[in-house]
Amino acid sequence: MLKRLDEFNIGETGLIKKVEGEGRLRRRLFDMGVTPGATVYLRKKAPLGDPLEVTIRGYELTLRKSEAELVVLEVKEDQ
């Protein structure tokens, strides 16, 4: 099942399928390691949903909700 990162619940894990957006914002996400094929784990969400804290490529990353909306992932089922 495909889902955007901003729609994830705390504790969910997914595999990045595509990163939408254009120009500087997309390049910034790529520079932070948000690239297709990377595994993302949603650690925390602020009370109003912005920002989100994820673990990706072995480090913690904080993203704005507007950035998370651009990341499409395939949800990994519980193992």
Concise structural overview:
The chain has 2 helices and 6 strands. With 79 residues, the protein is an alpha+beta fold.
Give a description of the structure.
It is a single chain. Helix content is 16%, strand content 41%. By secondary structure, it is α+β, with helices and mostly antiparallel strands. The protein has one domain (2-75): Ferrous iron transport protein A (FeoA) (SH3 type barrels, Roll). A 6-stranded antiparallel sheet has the order 1-6-2-3-4-5. The longest helix has 9 residues, at 23-31. The model has no long low-confidence stretch (mean pLDDT 91).
Question: Which features characterize this protein?
Answer:
alpha+beta; 79 residues; 6 strands; 6-stranded antiparallel β-sheet; 41% strand; globular; single chain
Give the overall form. globular
Number of domains: 1
Could you give the order of the helices and strands? EEHEEEHE
Question: Strand pairing plus helix content: what structural class?
Answer: alpha+beta
Name of the CATH first level: Mainly Beta
Count of runs of 4 or more consecutive helical residues: 2
**Strand element count:** 6
Instruction: Enumerate the spans where pLDDT stays under 50 for 5 or more consecutive residues.
Output: none
**What's the helical proportion of residues?**
10-25%
| Alpha carbon gap, first and last residue | 16 Å
CATH fold topology: SH3 type barrels
Indicate the CATH architecture: Roll
Largest sheet: 6 strands, antiparallel
- Average residue pLDDT: 91
Q: C-alpha Rg, in Å? A: 11 Å
**Strand sequence of the main sheet, in spatial order?**
1-6-2-3-4-5
CATH superfamily assignment?
Answer: Ferrous iron transport protein A (FeoA)
Give the amount of beta strand, in percent: 35-45%
Q: How would you classify the quaternary structure?
A: single chain
